Amino acid sequence: MGENICSPCAMCCSGNLFSRVPIEAKEQAVLDDRANVFMHKGNMRMSLPCQLLKSNGDCSVYENRPGGCQSYRCDLLRKLDSDAVSGEVALDIIEEAKTCVARLKSDISKALPESMALDFEQPIYRVVHGMRDARKMYPDLLNSFWADQAELHFSILIDIVRANFEENYLK
Questions:
Q1: Is there a single domain that holds both residue 114 and residue 58?
Q2: Which listed residue, 4, 73, 85, 123, has the most CB atoms within 10 A of its CB?
Q3: Are residues 49 and 128 in the same domain?
Q4: How crowded is the C-beta side of 22, counted as CA atoms within 13 Å?
């Protein structure tokens, strides 16, 4: 079952867990122009959310995906592989996490005035930090109720991720 939860999940590829993945120079040649590859502290990285991810969660370069993508196994996948959770429970956890991300994005959109839209095509924690920065700089422009809701959903998301996907998330 293990690999069957990856496509419906895509939490690692979507920027909800990480902001980048390490790649090797030879792997860059396989990636197309949509991949955002850059150098970070002398090492090649690909930024996340992955631009090679299809809307259904499938990887468009799955057979040739970078080694960092191939070797990563989240806590939930390892639990599934060891029969610590069932496939049904794993899919329920994934749905809970994705629902929380959607609520968080919705809350942030409602908190900000239209003139202050954030780029949701970046890791979710950066979007939250952008909202926090806007809240400090322009407190009268933000809807406090929705900003508070966003903070609540971000806290819940962190708990879900740490319990099920990556225990050191944002530590």
A1: no
A2: 85
A3: no
A4: 8
Q: Whole-angstrom Cα distance, residue 92 to residue 72?
A: 21
- Share the mean pLDDT of the chain: 90
| Phi then psi dihedrals of residue 84, to 5 deg | -75, -25
Tokens of 46: 């690909």
Q: Are 82 and 154 within one domain? A: yes
Chain segment 29-81, per-residue pLDDT in tens: 878 778 889 998 999 999 999 999 888 888 888 888 899 999 999 999 999 99
Residues 32, 20: Cα–Cα separation, whole Å: 16
Beta carbons within 8 Å of 168's beta carbon, 6+ residues apart: 162
Indicate the length of the chain as a whole number.
171
CA dist list (Å): 136 to 114, 132, 148: 17, 6, 13
Radius of gyration from C-alpha coordinates of the chain? 17
* Residue that has been written with the tokens 């009268």 in this structure: 140
Distance CA 31, CA 140 (A): 44
